[in-house]
């Protein structure tokens, strides 16, 4: 039998409405049922819920939500065909980028079946040099997948690795996720080096499972468990 003691009551840090979650969700990432913002349930009754800890920073970057003013830097980034060499993506023009930004403003990390995008902005000057995407998995197990794109003019400078380590800390330490995954085209040597350098384990290779830019390719799958993280 479920009793009142099995629930934790608190106020949403966004809408301030009183809400309640089962105790088994304490400390976890959830969605406010009133305003639909992503929140972190308090560990015990009487503690406040935490808002999503975004933006967050690394040594040289601020990872934040995308905004309308990012369209110029995104146009510079996404007009480069070489960025999509190992994906089925394609260059975007100004109109497509503006539509994306308008739609993205309504997405929360806990929005079902949606990718939550983060701008990779230089702390000095604020220029957007890339973006990351995080997508939560099934709600019954706290896990997510992620990917990173960096402007080709800023590659080979350690930015992708720095951003990836920041995402690991965000997902495992702040959100208390159980598992984080990533995948890449097996020909993408830079992505392979990145994922392995931050400690992800190669869990398998799907042979000839994808059609990328008209070519049949293999996909490598990587993962890391929260319990395996020693230092991020």
Keywords:
single chain; 232 residues; alpha+beta; Aminopeptidase; 2 domains; 8-stranded mixed sheet; 19% helix
In percent terms, what proportion of residues is strand?
A: 25-35%
Level-1 CATH class name of the largest domain: Alpha Beta
What's the β-strand tally? Answer: 13
Order of helices and strands: EEEEEEEHHEEEHEHEE
Task: Describe the model.
With 232 residues, this protein is α+β, with helices and mostly antiparallel strands. The chain has 2 domains: 4-51, no CATH class; 56-228, Gcn5-related N-acetyltransferase (GNAT) (Aminopeptidase, 3-Layer(aba) Sandwich). Helices cover 19% and strands 34% of the residues. It contains 4 helices and 13 strands. The protein has helices spanning 71-78, 94-104, 159-174, 189-197; strands spanning 7-11, 18-22, 29-31, 38-40, 50-51, 56-57, 61-64, 116-122, 128-136, 143-150, 179-185, 201-212, 215-225. Strand 12 and strand 13 (215-225) form a beta hairpin. Helix 1 (71-78) crosses helix 2 (94-104). The chain is globular and about 55 Å long. The protein starts with 6 loop residues before the first strand and ends in a 7-residue tail after the last strand. The mean pLDDT is 94.
Question: What is this structure, in a nutshell?
Answer:
With about 230 residues, the protein is α+β, with helices and mostly antiparallel strands.
């Amino acid at each position: 039998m479920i009793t009142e003691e099995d629930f934790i009551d608190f106020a949403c840090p966004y809408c301030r409405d009183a809400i309640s979650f089962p105790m088994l969700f304490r400390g976890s990432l959830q969605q406010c049922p009133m305003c639909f913002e992503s929140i972190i349930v308090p560990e015990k009754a009487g503690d406040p819920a935490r808002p999503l800890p975004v933006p967050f920073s690394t040594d040289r970057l601020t990872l934040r939500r995308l905004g309308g003013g990012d369209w110029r830097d995104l146009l510079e980034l996404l007009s480069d065909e070489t960025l999509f060499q190992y994906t089925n993506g394609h260059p975007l023009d100004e109109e497509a980028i503006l539509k994306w930004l308008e739609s993205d403003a309504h997405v929360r990390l806990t929005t079902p079946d949606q990718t939550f995008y983060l701008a990779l902005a230089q702390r000095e000057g604020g220029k957007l040099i890339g973006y990351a995407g995080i997508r939560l998995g099934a709600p019954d197990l706290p896990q997510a997948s992620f990917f990173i794109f960096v402007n080709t003019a800023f590659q080979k400078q350690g930015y992708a690795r720095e951003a990836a380590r920041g995402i690991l800390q965000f997902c495992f330490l702040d959100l208390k996720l159980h598992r984080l995954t990533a995948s890449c085209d097996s020909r993408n040597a830079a992505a392979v080096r990145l994922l392995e350098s931050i400690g992800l384990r190669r869990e398998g290779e799907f042979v000839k499972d994808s059609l990328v830019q008209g070519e049949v390719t293999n996909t490598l799958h990587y993962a890391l468990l929260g319990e395996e993280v020693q230092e991020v």
